[in-house]
Design brief:
This protein has about 260 residues and is an alpha/beta fold. It folds into two domains: about 50 residues, no CATH class; about 190 residues, 3-Layer(aba) Sandwich (Rossmann fold), CATH 3.40.50.150. About 35% of the residues lie in helices and about 20% in strands. It is built from ten helices and nine strands. The strands form two sheets. A seven-stranded mixed beta sheet has the order 5-4-3-6-7-9-8, sandwiched between helices. A two-stranded antiparallel sheet has the order 1-2. Strand 8 and strand 9 form a beta hairpin. Helix 2 crosses helix 4 and helix 6 runs parallel beside helix 7. The N and C termini lie far apart (about 70 Å).
Length: about 260
Amino acid sequence: MHSVHNYLNSRLIDSVPLLELALKKDHSWLIANNDYTLNAQEKRTLDHLIKQRQKGIPFAYLSGTKGFYHLDFKVTPDTLIPRPETELLIDIALDLFKKKPCRLLDLGTGSGIIAITLADKNPHWQVNATDFCEKALAVARQNTNKNINFQQGNWFDAVPNQTFDLIISNPPYIEQNNPYLKDLTYEPQSALVSGKDGLDDIRLIIKNAPKHLNKQGYLLLEHGYNQQQQITQLLKDNFLNIRKYNDYNQQNRAILAQLKL
């Protein structure tokens, strides 16, 4: 018998969320109908999802959605899966500008989580978002009906001669050959890896940001837990008021800097 009750008590990884996905029901329905027996088609659907998950395919790619901040986002293998650590960037940006207007650039937007969340929180902001991957931008466009200017191109190539009050980015920052990458094989590697020390893209962003910032504009970057000191040194030539932030796990995670006059 393939009853809901059996799956609720299963030790299979993500068995309950996968059951919700296969039956298109929420958890409260499963609890209330734990004597329900899956029909043949539902069982085939669930077995397929279980096999995919056991291969290591992330649950977010199987469900096609992932929550971030106060919204849900479509995700595909062309985009990184949103992570709670990145919500820190939203908090910093909201606190920085509060109710003030802001011309924002989100570099490497992926599924659009940063740009879309901030546009939703601040409808009066002018929000721009770029990515070199057209497939990722297609996902981002599907994720919002907000008036966001999406541009395709490699970093600042997408916004020639444009300037902003705040440039924000969660760029690739994992070093090549990091053993952690074996747990991320289903996510786009180009959105994760950035050279031998993980800082190739961050160096490029820091070097080119000044000519794309308005007077006293800000640059806000997410980074790896062991990169804050190196990034601080990279910023010192053209930036001041450098502020460092820890994520909710108390790991170094973000850095904010203001353009020198």
